[in-house]
Specification:
Keywords: Signal. With 131 residues, the chain is an alpha+beta fold. The chain has one domain: Beta Barrel (Lipocalin). Helices cover 18% and strands 47% of the residues.
Length: 131
């Protein structure tokens, strides 16, 4: 009787253990940066915040709105994502080149700094939430 119980227990464990290892070994889903983002940017010191938005495309390009997504002030540029580090450079029609450096948080939040090229910190900070 005792031997049968041990064999049954071993068989049960042999099915349960791989399931536990597989489920525990799965990494948490990584958020994607591709999509529409809305939020605000600020310029120091204490100037308040202004609407800001981006449409980030799968082909490495983006559109930036100095206002809500869809507003008239549009810049175009390129982006990269290395791990959770997001970097972009974009150009406004009137001639300004802007660089951003941000972290893509697991909660679909981009937080970082922006600046006029060649700096990515000289302008201020921004926060964008994926829509």
């Amino acid at each position: 009787m005792k031997q049968k119980l041990n064999v049954r227990g071993f068989i049960g464990l042999s099915f349960l253990l791989p399931a536990l290892v597989v489920s525990c070994g799965q990494p948490a889903p990584v958020p994607t940066v591709v999509g529409t983002w809305s939020g605000t940017y600020s310029t120091p010191p204490g100037s308040g915040s202004s609407p800001y938005g981006m449409i980030i495309n799968t082909d490495g390009t983006l559109k930036v709105y100095d206002g809500p997504v869809g507003s008239a002030d549009v810049a175009t540029g390129t982006w990269t994502l290395t791990g959770q580090n997001f970097k972009a450079t974009y150009h406004y029609v009137e001639g300004s080149d802007v660089m951003v450096n941000a972290v893509l948080n697991p909660s679909n939040l981009l937080t970082g700094t922006w600046g006029f090229a060649p700096s990515n910190t000289s302008g201020g900070s921004f926060t964008l939430t994926k829509q």
